[in-house]
């Protein structure tokens, strides 16, 4: 495999690309000026018809990286005929989830807006009939999730023998979900002579095997090597008793001026219960767990995106498949059972150059989970105590302070007499029994968190460059605006090295 390594901060204007005027106009309307790194690398290669193996996460601009050159190549077939036969499927884009499929299809529609090329999206959980009608009319670009595409193939609604381009997007996720057999079947229907583009957050051995089987002499493009993914997430760990966790969340939101956040819990029951009690504390909260229907999930998502909901309390399973990124803050109300879920959770914040906050509330019983997490992060984490503002006057009167509890890995033999210091006469807090974090070595922690300036709007909206109005999908919901890909980049922090991957979704 030929490797093409990246100059991460290289900027190149779209005007260097010689895109067809119809595509260039759409790009200009989207408000894009410079290509993102993945675009600068991938577009010229795809224009040459080469196979590509791209390591890039959602939020890097990879949709345009494959869509624009693919559309440019499709323009050779552009025609205004009403005959379906003149509009066979020539490009197929496969994605793991309905939300991603819908999102990518919307983007492609925008890019193809001034062309005669037709595109459509098919995914499960929706009536097949409208999709069938659209397919029967003929579409050049078909975006699909694997399962539903197979249904349409079996029903003879989709014929794939003229496909020239196939894109396997979020391929690692498709494999995680168990789509490999479906992918293999779909790929077996495609002509051997074609261009195949595979995008994945990581190049695991399984992904490499898939690439070896289906890609021909691909160019490898990486915008961030999987183990070096830079992020801008401020990670904080607080020692908090279970009973104080809600208070901790409320206080941190207030202190930081954060309007919206995700709160992750480990169980369905805990999720519903926590959402209810946060509601009682005056926060507009929605619970997302496995018992919620797809419709309820989408409604919750839409309300959150509109800023009508302050907190989305979610289990890991329910949060998968939700197209929500760049949330200002993520709270781990529970430390995840699975250390890798930590990476997925915190990846909801701090994307695309925006700073984000990830707060983990560590209970005394979380020792083993924290040990697993440290193993994954390959570093010791500093656990801080938390002072509750409303307690301070009283506490000081009594000479006590709420120290949370002993840090989970604190040496039990150390002095733990905070609670026996009631008789202290001075008003200074007693020495804490947990280890105060020393000044973090990580340069990111030296920088104070900056709350989003446009507080009225969700932070990802405020950070977004204004763009052409995004049409509402007939299928799902309004979409986020252009990500702040070129926002001033704060100093990157190397987060969860190994596992720092695209942190999104799973097919439902
Ligand atoms: P993606 O990684 O494809 O999901 O793209 C993330 C977001 O970045 C989308 O909202 C795109 O509209 C936006 N985007 C893609 N390319 C660019 C670009 N060159 N300049 C600005 N925004 C872009």
- What is the total domain count? 2
Rounded to an integer, what's the Rg over CA atoms? 25 Å
Poorly predicted regions are 1-10, 225-230, 392-472, 476-508
- Strand arrangement, largest sheet? 1-10-4-9-8-5-7-6
**Beta-strand content bin:** 5-15%
Shape: elongated
Q: Indicate the CATH architecture of the largest domain.
A: 3-Layer(aba) Sandwich
The biggest sheet, with number of strands, parallel, antiparallel or mixed sense and barrel status, is:
8 strands, parallel
The fourth-level CATH homologous superfamily of the largest domain is P-loop containing nucleotide triphosphate hydrolases
> How confident overall, as mean pLDDT?
75
Q: Provide the list of bound ligands, each named once.
A: adenosine monophosphate
Q: How many beta-strand segments?
A: 19
Query: How many DSSP H or I helices?
Result: 17
Class inferred from helices and paired strands = alpha/beta
Distance between the termini: 34 Å
Can you tell me the CATH class of the largest domain?
Alpha Beta
Fold-level CATH name of the largest domain:
Rossmann fold
């Amino acid at each position: 495999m030929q490797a093409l390594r990246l100059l991460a901060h290289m900027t190149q204007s779209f005007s260097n690309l010689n895109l067809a005027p119809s595509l260039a106009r759409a790009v200009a309307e989207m408000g894009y000026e410079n290509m993102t790194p993945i675009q600068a690398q991938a577009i010229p290669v795809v224009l040459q018809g080469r196979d590509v193996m791209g390591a890039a996460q959602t939020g890097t601009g990879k949709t345009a990286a494959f869509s624009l050159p693919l559309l440019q190549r499709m323009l050779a077939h552009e025609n205004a005929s009403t005959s379906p036969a003149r509009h066979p499927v020539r490009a197929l884009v496969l994605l793991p989830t309905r939300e991603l499929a819908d999102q990518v299809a919307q983007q492609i529609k925008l890019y193809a807006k001034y062309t005669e090329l037709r595109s459509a999206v098919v995914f499960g959980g929706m009536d097949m009939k409208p999709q069938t009608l659209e397919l029967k009319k003929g579409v050049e670009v078909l975006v699909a999730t694997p399962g539903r595409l197979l249904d349409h193939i079996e029903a003879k609604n989709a014929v794939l023998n003229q496909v020239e381009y196939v894109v396997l997007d979020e391929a690692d996720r498709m494999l995680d979900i168990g789509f490999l057999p479906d992918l293999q079947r779909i790929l077996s229907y495609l002509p051997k002579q074609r261009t195949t583009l595979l995008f994945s957050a990581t190049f695991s051995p399984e992904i490499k095997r898939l690439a070896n089987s289906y890609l021909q002499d691909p160019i490898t493009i990486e915008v961030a090597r999987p183990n070096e993914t830079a992020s801008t997430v401020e990670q904080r760990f607080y020692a908090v008793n279970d009973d104080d966790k809600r208070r901790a969340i409320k206080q941190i939101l207030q202190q930081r001026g954060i309007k919206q956040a995700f709160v992750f819990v480990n169980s369905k029951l805990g999720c519903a219960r926590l959402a209810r009690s946060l509601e009682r504390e005056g926060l507009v909260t929605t619970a997302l767990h496995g018992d919620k229907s797809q419709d309820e999930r989408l409604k919750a998502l839409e309300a959150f995106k509109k800023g009508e909901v302050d907190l989305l309390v979610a289990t890991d399973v329910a949060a998968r498949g939700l197209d929500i990124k760049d949330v200002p803050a993520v709270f781990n109300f529970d430390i995840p059972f699975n250390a890798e879920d930590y990476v997925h959770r915190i990846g909801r914040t701090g994307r695309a150059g925006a700073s984000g906050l990830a707060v983990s509330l560590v209970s005394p019983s979380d020792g083993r989970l924290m040990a697993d997490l440290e193993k994954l992060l390959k570093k010791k984490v500093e656990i801080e105590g938390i002072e509750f503002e409303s307690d301070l006057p009283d506490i000081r009167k009594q000479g006590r302070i709420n120290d949370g509890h002993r840090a989970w890995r604190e040496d039990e033999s150390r002095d733990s007499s905070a609670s026996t210091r009631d008789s202290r006469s001075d008003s200074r807090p007693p020495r804490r029994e947990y280890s105060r974090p020393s000044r973090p070595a990580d340069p990111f922690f030296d920088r104070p968190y900056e709350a989003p300036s446009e507080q009225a709007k969700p932070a990802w909206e405020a950070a977004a460059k204004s763009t052409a109005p995004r049409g509402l999908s007939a299928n799902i919901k309004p979409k986020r605006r252009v990500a702040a890909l070129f926002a001033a980049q704060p100093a990157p922090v190397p987060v969860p090295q190994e596992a720092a991957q695209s942190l999104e979704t799973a097919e439902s």
